[in-house]
Amino acid sequence: MKPYYRPLPRLATWLRQYRSPSYAEQPRLPASFEELASAVTPAHGQALWERGYTVIDGALSHSTCQGFRDEILGLRASGLLHLNSTHLVKGSTRSLLQKHGIFEAEVAEKGIQDAAPSIEAFQRDRTLMTMLSLYLPQLPLHSQLTKVQLNAGDGSCFPLHYDSDESVDSRRITAILYLNPDWQRGDGGELKLYPWPHEPVTVEPLNNRLLLFSTCRMLHRVLPASRERVCFTTWMSVMKPGSPPASLSRLHQQSKAGSMLPDALLSEVEVRRALAMLAYQEEWKCSLAESHRDDASRDALLTDFAGKEMHSPGNSQWRAFMSIAVVP
């Protein structure tokens, strides 16, 4: 699908007025945020829609990125960041399993806003969201939330995961801005995308690099870092999420009844997620082990993953679909 594009007169002026309903009452935002209006192009919208991800280098000024980085380092030094945790749900029981060396905070928190005013201004700014909505009218974005993150660099990482699910919330696009001026190959901390059935893609966390990908449909992980890694993530949401994708169990029944051809089945969101889990199950299991401390809670997590892996609906049939999938 070709992206929609219509030039707008005096775009920068319009964007300044549109940033938020109370813009007139707010302090002037950094002029460099307006650079996003020219940094985001129709090609980026097309890649995001067709491939599920896109990368924009140099979207902001280096001074703006340095200011963002300084604020996150200041939050860490002030003890305002907390350890990230994996949320475990088993029946009606919920628990948290902390990752080691991953520190973060929601910018929605008042204390974080006061200590990181530039990042809070970025969260309020609507330039990026507006440009993406312009080039992706089929995905009208409405609101956004930001989380800052610092990876301590002692092998800390994230397991394979999707940021969300279309049946859970309205987040649709994930945007990560990397703030690592001294990063070099070998430092680790890259983000690995799994746009199944295409080959995985590794994105280096270079300074002033903006990575955009599908919140609900792009499987990804953070590789172990040997050096401190700084970034912040913004999730953009739609106002009306629409109907959730068909469930895996219902699709499996349709497949058994012969009412869906393999090509049609492979286009379904939940089928692609199940197949990706099968395709990368060993790497997924290893990433879970790498991301958490070696203790009884991690053992329980790995046991639970193994159970899901063995008892997925139609496990053998999903493997059969994998064998006939052809990537042009």
TrEMBL record:
Stated name of the protein: G4333 protein
Keywords, comma-separated and alphabetical: Dioxygenase, Iron, Metal-binding, Oxidoreductase, Vitamin C
Entry superkingdom: Eukaryota
Ranges of residues in domain Fe2OG dioxygenase: 126-238
Pfam families attached to this UniProt entry: 2OG-FeII_Oxy_3
Classification of source organism: Eukaryota, Viridiplantae, Chlorophyta, core chlorophytes, Trebouxiophyceae
Gene transcribed to yield this protein: g4333
Record-linked SUPFAM superfamilies: Clavaminate synthase-like
Necessary cofactors: L-ascorbate
Gene3D superfamilies membership: q2cbj1_9rhob like domain
